[in-house]
Amino acid sequence: MRTTVAWIAAQQDADGALPWSRGEQLDPWDSVEAAMALDVGGEHARAAAAYRWLAGQQRPDGSWASEYREGAETAPAAESNHAGYLAVGAWHSWLTTGDEELVEQLWPVVRRGLDLVTRMQLPGGAIGWALRPDGTADGTALLTGNASLFQALRCGIALAGLRGEVQPDWEVAVTDLGTALRTRPQDFADRSRYSMDWYYPVLGGAVTGAAARDRLAAGWDTFVVPGLGARCVSDRPWVTGAETCELALALAVADQPDAALEQLTAMQHLRDDDGSYWTGLVFADGKRWPVERTTWTAAAVVLAADALTGATPAAGLFRHPGTLPAPGMPRSADSLAGGAGTVHP
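Above: the chain sequence. Below: its structure as tokens.
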């Protein structure tokens, strides 16, 4: 893992930007994931630089562009998933390092992003995937993105509690969102061929316990290729490293650590000698595709390994979502230590 973290660090630009690989595109969600891996590997200065770079790119409405290249916006769409995920990175960094200065700097950025997310919530509780040109939320909601936002809102509430604040709008939003994720599948676009829509409600913490185990069991034969990992889509002979590691995280949430370790082990055929990971393998012909090694695939490996080994104080963020504040239960700073996991590393 140290070799993998070193490879991720080598892809970072001098200004802190953390793209898919050096000289390639950057999107906010994947950049946060890669920064979390840097923190796991002890590269906190680099992780903080990546977060500060993202903070500097935030638009006044709380959004980010969906793609950057060499510091310039190359795909301007404002997506809710990108707007929310810095909250997860900021809380993860706090759990790992206890860096109060970084939390102080990121808090206004996190707040603007999550305020935008709540403004994009649709009547049934789901959150629109992007902003329309007129600034209103698109009526289409994506299940994977919403499951990630469920986690992001809870991390935002934990950060607010750390500061002695409450965010009632976020509390209402995450409660309604959780209900939609658990009981209103019709409110989300049908992307059931994608494995992420299968496991992400578990990974994000909206579905837990026996319901989580039942959900994972129901899609197992559709998406898991024994000995190779998880398919990205059900109708293609293509396993991908990031999805496999995210499935491992979901299995850890469902209290199935042996199965999680099996999946983390299965995808190691994608590892390169320098510690990086290829995105995927078309197993029908044994070819790696696409021909790329990305920081976010490597980061997914690192985060899964941390969750399964408990190597850092942030390991429980993914494995034990119940340690975050319960949706609908505002917390004060005094109660945070008892209800939001390890506050002080």
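The radius of gyration is 18 Å.
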